[in-house]
Structure formats: structure tokens, C-alpha cells
Amino acid sequence: MWQFEFLGVTKLDTQPMEEQPLREIAIERLKEKKERQRTQQLPEEHVQKLVKEEEKHSVRDMVKMVQELQEQNQELEEIRETKLKEITEEPREAVLDRIRQKTNELMKRAVEINKYKKDKTSNEFRQQAVKMNTTARMMVADEQDPRAEERDEWIKNQTQEFKDMANAVLEDKDAKRDEKRHAEELLEMSNALDEDLKSLEGQDQNSNIQQAQQMLADAPQPTEQMSPEQLAQMPPEDLYDRAKALEEKADQTFTDIKTAELSQQQNATLQEARQNLSHTPPQRPEMGKQLAEQKDTLKTREDLKTFRKQLQDTVKKVDEMKVATADKVSQAQGMTKLSKALGNQSPQQQYRARAMMNKFASGSQANVDMSSIMRQMAMGMATSTSAGMGDHRETEGGAGTYSDPDDIAPKNIKGINIPSSKVMAQALPGQKFSKDSARHGWLYLDTWYIIGPWENHGKLDHRDIFPPELSIDFDAEYLGKKQTRGPDKGQPMKLKWQFTQSGRIQVVPPNERSNAVYYAYTEVHFDQNTDMLLAVASDDSSKLWINDLVVWDDKTHSDWRIGEGSRKVFFKKGYNKLLLRLENRGSETEFSVLICPPTFK
Question: Which of 85, 281, 302, 311 has the fewest CB atoms nearer than 10 Å to its CB?
Fold first, then answer.
């Protein structure tokens, strides 16, 4: 006789062959019981008790996150005020550089049109634009210089003459269509120049300063810092809605900060900088409303299970908001490092320091030592006002003390020897670096997250700013360059970050296209503060940030060459962020980043 124990039922049976149907019956009955329990309506008091218990845990987690979002907003608001105040102190030298840049662009365009048209009108435009560009180069920054006012008048009169010439073509009934089109384009460029010329009359006429002052005056109310006790009294749906509102406010504040930073980097007006930003505000679902509606319809155990899952998803979304905003705070803090490193220098000294940083980061400077200023910024140490960008001081290094006897300003260094064939044959991949590592020589970064392409219209000027320059969000999806073939031709590509491990020195982005912009992000780890040699190369142009500081900015149309640009840079102990912008004009594109200790021979 056999004895079976199954689902709590003990049965003695002398016919084991008939046991299988009985088991199936028992299983079916258990399923029916569970289904009745799942769909059975629960007493309202019982439902409310279970809901409160579930909400208790979620509220506890969300309160901490919302509190962090409040603090993040407060810090961003302070940085926004700092950056805009820097714009309100814009020196005359910055205005002159914008005028020189715009007259140069106007001259280049007028020369291009004249080469194409080769007629009297286009030649007159070219001659006048050349004259304006020559005058702009002769302008002086010192307002006390007796030549300043005279040359200011020259450029104003010449610009007015240029505008009169363009308007005459537009009013001429006999002018051809393409002549009017070119005249309209040149008039638009000269009108933009005219806005900067007005700024020469004083700060009260400087439209850029006025806009910064207006943005300061229109600043939103400071974020209310609700206490943990106050937040704990709010239901999850209200906490989610508050988190969503805080993220949106932080995003807008950060956009203003980035606009001000871009204005300083490109020496553009705030209005021009804003136009160059391609900004996608955070898009979050209305989960607070959904949660409230769902809570009113809870009747069964199945409803409660669904509600629990919805609560978990809500907490996860709030955490995503906190992380995304933390990244913006980190970037914003990086934008203030140079100002802090410059200490109490005058606006003109600070402007010149920024201009020098941009100059030495540019691709026209092949070999530059930027390690001292990077170290100064990373350490958060102020410099004296009497020694230009900095003076001699001792700073703590990874192994003992770092002595910087020279000025901390970037400077040209002797060419870094990068033997192409040897490096191509012997370089190894790496993302973590240790002084005691057995590996020596050049190491290449082969592991990246890459996103793109966006449209650059064949221009390699790095002017249009796309979302990765605002925030690194690996979960985000963006609309990029339009499809050129297939059933979705004409529709924008949906872009997401893609993990890429090249396995070789050159990294080729996915979705390779012509006239395109890509971004690549990675992190490298050092076991101590370290100066390293860096080699950047790309086909065509590229721009590289290390810990939010631009160290390489090449706008040329060139093939990949392993030693195209070299830098001596500083990496702090721990993880360091690298963001690379890659621009392509032709059909093929690639880039590489290599690192080597400066003592390696």
C-alpha cells in the first residue's frame, strides 16, 4: 500500500496508476481558490489599512529624494545668479572681440558671394566688408585711449554704409532675385553686428548686459525648502508631483546657467547662445494623477498588487529625477571652477583668462600643458590677483607634494613624441590606471557610450549645442538627424546611448553618417592625483572635455592622425569624466583618445 502527501491531503491508495488524475483535480481546485481570493472584494477598512502600509514605505524613500531635489535647486539658483552677474560685468574687450568676429564672418561671406557672382554690386559689398574688418582689428580696448572713440565712429559709419548698400539692393525693382537674397543675408549679418556696436556707447546700451540684468530680475522665486516632517505628511502622488515640478525648475535654471557659460565660451550674446542650444525639457509621465485615480478604485487583492507595483515605479521615477538633476548640479559646479581659480581678478582679467583658455584648447595649438590650471581648478584653490592667472604655490599631489613654480596658465610645450607605428602596434586598452601597474607606455580608451547622429549641415564650428552637452542621461531618447533612406525617409532618427567597445585604437560611432554630430562618454579611474600625456585624434573635428573643462577643440576638416593634438593634463584621484564631441563632414568618421605617463620614454 502506498501513501501520498500532496497539497496537504494524505491519501492511502492501493491503485497508484489512478493517482495522477487526482493530483490534477487538486491543482485545479487550488487554482480556483486563488482566483477567488484574487478577485474577491475586500472590506474597505482592510483596503485602507493595506494602502497606508504600502504608502508608508514609499513616502519614507521619496521624502529623502525630494529633499535632495530641493537642495539641488537651491544650489543651481545660486550658480545661476553668479554666472549672470559675471555677464553684467562684461568688459569692453569682450564686445570688441565679438565685433571683430562678426566683421570677419561678414567679410568671408561677402568674398564668397563675390567669387560666385563676380559683378559690380557684389564687389562693392566685398570692398566695404574688407574695410570694416580692417577697422575692427584697429579698435582699442582702453576707453581712455584717444583713438578709441575715433575708431568706434569709423566702424559705426562703415556698418551703416554697408546696411544702406544692402537696403538699396532690396529696394531696387530691377535687382535680380539672387542679388536680393544675398543682400538680405548680408543685411541680417550687419544688423547683428550693429547690436554689438551699440554696446560701445556704455554698459547702459549693452544689450547683453541688459538681458543678463533682466534675467536676474525675472528670476523665479527661490525654491521652498520644505522640512522632512512637512514632506512626510504628503501622500505619494503629491510627493511625485513636487519632485516633477522641482526637476522642471532645475532644468530651466540649468539651461540659463549653460546659456551664460556658452556666452562666455563662444563670446556670444546671451540671445545668440540660447539660439545655439538644442534643449529637450524632461518628459515625465503624470504618475501622481494616475496614482491618485488608481487609489480610488482599489477593491481586490489584484488591485492592491497593481497599486504596489505602481508605487514602486513612482519611487523609481523620483530617483531618476534626483540622479538627472545631480548631474546638472555637477556640471554647473564645473562651470564655476575657472571663476573660483581666478579669484578676485577684474572682469577684464577674467575675460582674458577665459580667452587664453579657449585659445590653448583650440586645435591650432598642437602641444599644450594644461595640467597646472586643471589641478588648480580641481583643488578649488583661489589664486592671487597680482600674478595673472596664478602664482607659485604648493598643492597636494597623489604621491607627496606637487610643486608648481610657474604660472598656472596653459602654455605651449615641446612636441610630444608619438611614434605612430610603434603605438599602433603596442598600445593597450585601459580605463583604470595605477602608478604601480605593470603596463607602461601609451594606453587607448576603447570603452565608450556613444549617441548620434545629429545634423551639422556640413559645418564644423561646434556652435549648435545638443542634449549631451547639457546632461548625460543614459535613459533618455532624443530625435536626431533625419533618415535619408528606407520607409522612414525624412523622419528624425530616434537616438539612445549605445555601449561601444572598439577593440582597437580608433573608435567608429554607430549609425555612421555624413554631416553629423556624435557624442562619446566614458570615465577613467586613477588611484592618485596624476599628470598624464593625452593624445586626441579625429576624422573630422572633435572637442574633448575632462571633468567639464575643454582641453581640446579642433574645428578643422581633417583625416584621422594619431598625434593630431597632444596635451599634458591632470586627472584627480578616483573617477574622471570624459565627454567627446565628434563632427563629420564626409561619409566616414572615427576618433581616438590615448593616455601615457609624462615620464615614459
Answer: 281
